[in-house]
Amino acid sequence: MSLLSHLISGLSLGSIYAIIALGYTMVYGIAKMLNFAHGDVIMVGGYACFFMVSTYDLPPIVGIVVAMAVCTLLGVTIERLAYKPLRAAPALAVLITAIGVSYFLQNAAQLLWTSNPRVFPSIVGDFSVKLFDGQLSISGTALVTILVCIVIMISLVWFTGHTKTGKAMRACSEDKAAATLMGINVNSTISITFAIGSALAAIAGVLLCSAYPTLSPTTGAMPGIKAFTAAVFGGIGSIPGAMLGGLLLGIIEIFGKAYISTQLSDAIVFLVLIIVLLVRPGGLLGKQVQEKV
Amino acid sequence: MKKFSACLLAAVMAGSLAACSSGTGTTPSTSPGASTGGAGATGVFKIGGTGPLTGGAAIYGQAARNGAQIAVDEINALGGIQFELNYQDDEHDAEKAVNAYNTLKDWGMQISLGSVTSTPAVATSVENNADRIFALTPSASATAVTEGKDNVFQLCFADPNQGSASAQYIFDQKLGTKIAVIYKNDDVYSTGIYNTFKTKATELGLEIVSETTFTEDSQQDFSVQLGDAKAKGADLVFLPMYYTPASLIFQQAKSMSYTPKYFGVDGMDGILTLEGFDPTLAEGVMLLTPFNADAADERTKNFVAKYQAAFGEIPNQFAADGYDCIYAILAALQGGNVTAGQATSEINDALIAQFTSMSFDGLTGNQMTWGTNGQVSKAPKGMVIKNGAYVGMD
């Protein structure tokens, strides 16, 4: 019974990692850059929803929609101001810029909203499902998180496979120059990618804060790093890979804590990552690219 | 245009960083060159301290500063010895605390209140000792703060005392038979209390059925730790930690339908002032703290009234610790006939002599005495949270 309940905690935590990891992996797949500010966009989404729900007393759904709108706008703005001018610059310059944007967002949030933690009101509500005579209780937040994650994953796979924009994204990811020759507007495709990734970040932020209800300017930092790990684990650039990586990471983390040691859980997570990368350098579902010299 | 927007962004970033790094210390409330009065100790003393005025542990820093400020205002209003108080923000970070300490030293600090929380205090106490600036920390309870430093003193219990006093209290009051402990194993405060709690509990024959940990990076999900405690039938969970993770533990235990008794230490104090926290989650939580805001004595009533008028909330024990620090320093300065004109190292030596020999009555305990190791001896009070307020247990 405890095995099942740990599995559900792991899936729920993993689903949040997976949604965040989707943002990393999409941007990497198309723009070939690591957007380290992604974790902090999550935090902004959390705050946007928090203010709508707590301060203005609006229904949770409005909070989520506003958070998605704010994050989309923020993501596109960051891309336009900080990343677009560097499109031709070396990858390292873009990486450092992304880290700069991440610190900028954290510090701006600290100035605007102070660093005192706030307790986030649960968006999902306080219900829980009891199974096996109450021996196993699953919180509503965990169920909703897992469900949302599956829905997002399926829609994204459909979107990239069957829509014109989705196909344009895949084309850009294959070869930007060839995509341009085919009449695809690479710049606007990248902007759309950032918009989708950031909207997902808003959803992840709301779910993260509902599951673990404290919100502070550094809320997004650690889950951001873990989700990045998940994206690499699953094969960065691959959408099902990010999903698989996120879920596995969540489950390994919780199982490591439960059955090996609470002290070593993070060490175990990263040890598994190292082993996977040694065996499959491209990640679990990543493309194994032969580097030509 | 592209270059322009990039420059603009860079400028905004630089601006925000600069704005963040400037401290939020209080301005001294007295004008320098105040009156001299009374015999013996005289002059304006500059007292400095660091504490988390922002960040996750901000409640402690702000409370200690506010409490100290009330004491300073009271003393200054009397004439005689005058104090200038300067608190700098350390965000509960050792490196920032040392920077804040250096700012205070440049300002001319003569007496120090050390740091409010343990991790930064371990760092600043080394500086205090090297610079021969006397320090009395209101609330940094780790033994490493005072260990091997003859001029660093604590006003609160040291961690070993908290851990063993908690075990003793649980044993005496028969609060639980199967005990689970969740502690933060990258934090000197939390592990320190845990170690002595465990030693004392074993000695008393209390059964610890579950011991689990978390770290700064994993303080969100407690389902495993709580699941372990629940599976092993723990009826009391001991939480030697600060209140932010504790608030998550209460919430997650509730969603797991796990309702043990909770026993916390002084870091739990402040949970009721957390913005948006549902106080029913903390109903029945017990904690050991040296200060009871409901106490009926005249000094406590007076302090609580002043604090509420000035800051709009009931003071916690950190506020009382800050208040007591200033009065203890005042008593020592008067006992040693110290004048503000003396060199800082002379003040330091005089205060060490006084602290190791005097007995002090404060809000957080009567007849406090200090050993040469810098630790205080006083009796803790058991408190329980009822209807969203702290109530004395005995």
Can you give a write-up of this model?
The complex is a heterodimer of chains A (293) and B (394). Chain A is mainly alpha-helical and 293 residues long. Chain A has one domain (15-221). The longest helix of chain A is centred in the first third of the chain and has 30 residues, at 2-31. Chain A is globular and about 65 Å long. Chain A contains eleven helices and four strands, in the order ααααβββααααβααα. Chain A has a two-stranded antiparallel ribbon. In chain A, strands 2-3 form a two-stranded antiparallel ribbon. The model of chain A has no long low-confidence stretch (mean pLDDT 86). Chain A starts with a helix and ends in a 14-residue tail after the last helix. Chain B starts with a helix and ends with a strand. In chain B, β14 and β15 (389-392) form a beta hairpin. With 394 residues, chain B is an alpha/beta fold. Chain B is built from twelve helices and 15 strands. Chain B folds into two domains: 36-157 and 299-379, 3-Layer(aba) Sandwich (Rossmann fold), CATH 3.40.50.2300; 160-289, Response regulator (Rossmann fold), CATH 3.40.50.2300. Classes of the chains: A mainly alpha (293), B alpha/beta (394). The interface between A and B is large, with 48 and 45 residues.
Strand and helix map with partners:
The complex is a heterodimer of chains A (293) and B (394).
Chain A: H1 2-31, H2 38-55, H3 60-83, H4 91-113, E1 118-119, E2 128-131, E3 136-139, H5 140-162, H6 164-174, H7 176-181, H8 186-211, E4 214-215, H9 221-234, H10 239-260, H11 265-279
Antiparallel strand pairs in A: 1-4, 2-3
Chain B: H1 2-21, E1 44-51, H2 58-77, E2 82-89, H3 94-107, E3 111-115, H4 118-131, E4 135-137, H5 143-146, E5 152-154, H6 159-172, E6 178-184, H7 188-204, E7 207-214, H8 223-231, E8 236-239, H9 243-255, E9 261-264, E10 286-289, H10 298-311, H11 317-335, H12 344-355, E11 360-362, E12 365-370, E13 376-377, E14 381-386, E15 389-392
Parallel strand pairs in B: 1-2, 1-3, 4-5, 6-7, 6-8, 8-9, 9-10
Antiparallel strand pairs in B: 10-14, 11-12, 12-13, 14-15
